[in-house]
Protein: Putative oxidoreductase
Amino acid sequence: MAEAAKHGATPLEGDGKRILLILGTPKGGSLCHALCEAFAQGARSEGHVVRLLKLGEMHFDPVLREGYDQSQNLEPDLLEAQRQIHWAEHLVFVYPVWWGGLPALLKGFFDRVFLPGFAFRYRDQSTQAWDKLLTGRTADLLVTLDTPPWYFRWIYGAPAHRQMVRAILGYCGIKTRRLTEFSPVRPSSEEQRQGWLRKAETLGTRC
Structure:
């Protein structure tokens, strides 16, 4: 019971899907937080078991100091994150796009957690063949931007989306099921934001 409460799960895990929400922003009280809560509410209403990782509240060094040349001990919060990722059937990443890419905290989380032996494994020294160790999991991406979607896609080339879907999740075997943009945020009205929250809740019911 205590463990379930710690992770925001319902006390008894029934037949619902195991969902891990990862809030990838250090900024408190943001639209991303509200979207995360709305998605969780929708998912729980359908009987799914939802757990939450708030990266901004975790304690870890986001810098991979020596790359993969030397091992870097994982902090307790990162070890727990790995356990939660193994537990989950479906991952939901909620984050903003900053400077066309991922927030440094979220990128640092991937650098430290998605390690060889956990997320992937090279078959030889050439690195041209590898095993995708997180295969079987799916993902939703809920992304906020100040840039209009068409501009981000056609002028910038949507670098953050390609990085997440192909270079990170796809590389490890996680299949992105949906990528939903909420933008542009800065000029949005309260009515628009309320509509986005309803959309996020609806997405949660469709897991």
